[in-house]
């Protein structure tokens, strides 16, 4: 009799536990790429991080964000150790293992940087950079134009780095002549290193690339992905999206091209596009 009662109690406890399932925590991964995402004093921070936080707050979905080297981050989400990744560009290869939220997370601008002392000849075509040593980041996509140029060997000497900061350190050491990088991220690195007077943006090149949040195909997160898409649209419509962007971008909006096309005067000339 006692055994039967204990058995009934165990069944009831199991049923109660099953009726209140633990809510899944979505594990997101990104890279160290100021000002979009970076490790702050109180955890991950940055423009893209704040946008993601607002989206997940509104859909009431628990989440964590971790920062890893980009190549590792992509591998980890591909095999399903992480649920999602941002800010990531779309490429045919990535579409094989990622389900992208169709709504744009943030648009990024790719630019070229060099030392002011360098006499870089660039006529607007990437093949004019063929003679120069070019730094790019490992596993980072720069959009179809530059990705195709890299794949076809347009640049004769390519140096791969793990971070944008490392690319600029190689530039300062005269180990490369050109750095290919996200423009806003470059301005942040230049400011951190205090090299505004040494480094210049190569004029006549800007390439806009949409970046997204995407989810591992191994994790079955279609519902979450669709909620993220819808909520991104909502925060853009109600003004929250622009408010977050402007809060981070306000001092960058005053930046002009820092490329010095007049060595005699030392004055920077504004780039027009």
From TrEMBL:
Residues 25-252 form the Solute-binding protein family 3/N-terminal domain. Keywords: Signal. InterPro entries: Solute-binding_3/MltF_N. The keyword Signal applies. It holds the Pfam family SBP_bac_3. It comes from the Bacteria. Belongs to the bacterial solute-binding protein 3 family. This is Solute-binding protein family 3/N-terminal domain-containing protein.
